[in-house]
């Protein structure tokens, strides 16, 4: 079966029309070695493009077909969906030009092309190509050919993403039967374990926990019998295993499994991939379940309606169970998100299912947007405004036009009080019909436009639009929880805002480095030397803000989200630092030290400051903390491959970071 880093391979022979020879076997062996060594994605892409250029120079169409299939698989694995689809289409054009219609080569190329379409959310187009491939495979391949099993695995995912779990399960059972028949050792067969992981996900979706847990257990037994802990298939089984642990009431084991899975996913796909983002999100939720349990908050079974991303023929990200809100009591840790989910599950879902049976599987529901509860930072002080029973319902534009008013009317019939909370106290801006309406019924495009000004994320070739978006705005558009999204449209747009284009990401990192350098390394000491207390204090503020932003950027928005607005920035930094796989986790403590000492450092006289020692000691400690932060940033830049320089003054790191920016207009002057 296909490896997530490698598509199904197409090695149909062809004769070069020139005297040059392309060594296809050597090319594929080199690619395998690069993947095994976890070579950075840019180097992999360069290797593939060099291979394509050499194959074209040799006018070797068969070699070009091989490289295009590999390119499609690579782009799919790093979530560059448009590029993956384009490579798949080019490969199919080559199939036609070579007269290979109906051959194994066409079937393989159809599978790779369909999988690229599925990863991009174009499930109907993907299924059409899977079905064509299946017709060819059943005619040209042996019944126990593993390529047919891989085809069934991929088709099952397309059906799953459309919410057709019964058909998804049928395909997986076919895949499992084929893999078992083809295996010489079913108890140590990675393909079988991967199929079992996929089967577990579908069984969870169908509410069959017993079969799901059996599949998880068998998959884990297989993976534990093989020494291959950097295989992305292992991450798939770990994710499924984590789901089973949550189902069984063991969030501590789920957290461990998700952390192990993230290490593998980072090696194989990178932190910018969909797989890393979704698995990180699942880990955060599992950690929340563990924290809730430690606070003696009872939890319920898993919500398996949440959409996941499966970038390949192996399952990577599995939806995790969410805590159901306990009844309020003295000292209850109930949060706004827990209250919202319980309100939906206990009252909203039954009402909508009864009133709109033909549309219930088209409705996305959750709580996202402005408000401390959407960030998970709300507490008892937060309940004096815009808090109480409520949730968001998101409809497609056409559905909203047809039934939006009726759904809103039904929503308004829900009780105003729930579990001792309510009625919801709305501020004028957040009231029904207000510019900042926070709960109720929305069309998907209008919801995101209300928050960001755009109905969907700007295109990658519109960097100026991305740069007009504040990070806090992007944080509001991508925070909270989505309780269900059968169509996947809301999640697709939400993830679009998380996938900041690489050039924009690098440009923002460069800008933050410039501000950290100018405000912290340069202007804080100079303003202090001038005795300009207010200027020094403002320089400290700019330094702290830029550093906080840089920490989130280096942790990748697709994986960790964005820095929220000022009120919750330190809370967000502390939560990020508590996650074991985060980058620069110690920075929040350094920034806290700087904030605590800034008043004394900037405004203190001889008898002012901590312990009455004056400003001198505080100033020294602030500058030492700034130096430590900048040293850590340089180390992280080098570790991430963003610089080769050891320069400590961060302004001079900017040209190294900007070397990777392709758009010259995004580079600093």
TrEMBL record:
Entry keywords, A to Z: Repeat, TPR repeat
SMART domains linked to this entry: TPR (SM00028)
Pfam family, one: TPR_12
Domain DUF4037: from-to ranges: 466-568
Recorded superkingdom: Bacteria
InterPro entries: DUF4037, TPR-like_helical_dom_sf, TPR_rpt
Protein name per the record: Tetratricopeptide repeat protein
Organism, scientific name: Rarobacter incanus
């Amino acid at each position: 079966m296909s490896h997530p880093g490698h598509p199904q391979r197409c090695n149909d022979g062809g004769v070069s029309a020139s005297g040059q020879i392309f060594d296809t076997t050597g090319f594929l062996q080199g690619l395998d070695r690069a993947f095994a060594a976890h070579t950075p994605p840019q180097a992999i892409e360069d290797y593939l493009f060099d291979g394509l250029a050499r194959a074209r120079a040799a006018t070797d169409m068969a070699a070009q077909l091989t490289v295009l299939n590999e390119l499609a698989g690579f782009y799919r694995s790093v979530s560059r969906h448009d590029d993956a689809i384009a490579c798949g289409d080019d490969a199919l054009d080559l199939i036609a030009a070579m007269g290979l219609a109906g051959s194994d080569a066409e079937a393989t190329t159809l599978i790779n092309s369909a999988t690229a379409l599925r990863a991009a959310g174009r499930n109907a187009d993907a299924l059409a190509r899977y079905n064509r491939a299946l017709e060819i495979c059943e005619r040209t391949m042996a019944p126990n050919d593993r390529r047919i099993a891989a085809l069934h695995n991929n088709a099952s995912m397309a059906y799953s993403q459309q919410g057709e779990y019964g058909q998804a399960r049928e395909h997986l059972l076919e895949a499992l039967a084929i893999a078992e028949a083809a295996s010489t050792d079913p108890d140590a067969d990675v393909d079988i374990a991967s199929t079992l992981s996929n089967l577990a996900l579908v069984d969870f979706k169908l509410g069959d926990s017993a079969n799901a847990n059996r599949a998880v257990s068998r998959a884990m037994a297989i993976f534990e019998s093989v020494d291959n802990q950097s295989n992305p298939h292992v991450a798939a089984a770990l994710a499924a295993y984590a789901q089973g642990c949550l189902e069984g009431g063991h969030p501590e084991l789920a957290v461990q499994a998700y952390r192990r899975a993230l290490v593998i996913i980072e090696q194989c796909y990178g932190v910018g991939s969909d797989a890393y983002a979704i698995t990180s999100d699942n880990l955060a939720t599992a950690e929340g379940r563990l924290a809730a349990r430690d606070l003696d908050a009872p939890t319920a079974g898993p919500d398996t309606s949440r959409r996941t991303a499966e970038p390949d023929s192996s399952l990577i990200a599995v939806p995790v169970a969410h805590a159901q809100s306990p009844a309020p009591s003295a000292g209850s840790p109930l949060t706004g998100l827990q209250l919202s989910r319980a309100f939906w599950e206990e009252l909203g879902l039954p009402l909508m299912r009864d009133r709109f049976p033909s549309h219930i599987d088209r409705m996305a529901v959750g709580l996202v947007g402005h408000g401390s509860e959407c960030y998970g930072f709300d507490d008892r002080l937060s309940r004096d405004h815009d808090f109480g029973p409520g949730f968001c319902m998101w409809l497609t534009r056409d559905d909203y036009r047809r039934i939006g008013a009726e759904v809103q009317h039904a929503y308004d019939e829900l009780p105003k009080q729930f579990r001792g909370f309510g009625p919801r106290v709305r501020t004028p801006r957040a009231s029904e019909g207000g510019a900042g309406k926070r709960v109720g019924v929305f069309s998907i495009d209008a919801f995101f436009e209300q928050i960001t000004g755009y109905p969907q994320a700007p295109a990658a070739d519109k960097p100026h639009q991305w740069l007009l978006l504040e990070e806090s705005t992007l944080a509001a558009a991508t925070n909270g929880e989505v309780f269900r999204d059968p169509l996947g449209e809301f999640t697709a747009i939400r993830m679009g805002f998380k996938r900041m284009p690489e050039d924009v990401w690098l440009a923002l990192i460069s800008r933050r480095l410039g501000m950290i350098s100018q405000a912290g390394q340069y202007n804080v000491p100079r303003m202090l030397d001038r005795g300009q207390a207010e200027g020094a204090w403002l320089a400290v503020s700019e330094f702290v803000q830029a550093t906080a932003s840089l920490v989130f950027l280096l942790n990748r928005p697709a994986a960790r989200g964005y820095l929220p607005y000022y009120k919750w920035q330190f809370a967000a930094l502390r939560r990020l630092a508590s996650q074991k796989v985060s980058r620069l986790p110690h920075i929040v403590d350094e920034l806290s030290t700087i904030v605590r000492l800034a008043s004394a450092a900037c405004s203190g006289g001889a008898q002012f400051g901590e312990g009455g020692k004056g400003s001198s000691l505080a100033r020294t400690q602030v500058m030492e903390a700034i130096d430590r932060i900048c040293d850590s940033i340089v180390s992280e830049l080098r570790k991430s491959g963003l610089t080769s320089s050891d320069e400590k003054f961060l302004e001079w790191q900017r040209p190294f970071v900007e070397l990777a920016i392709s758009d010259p207009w995004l580079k600093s002057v």
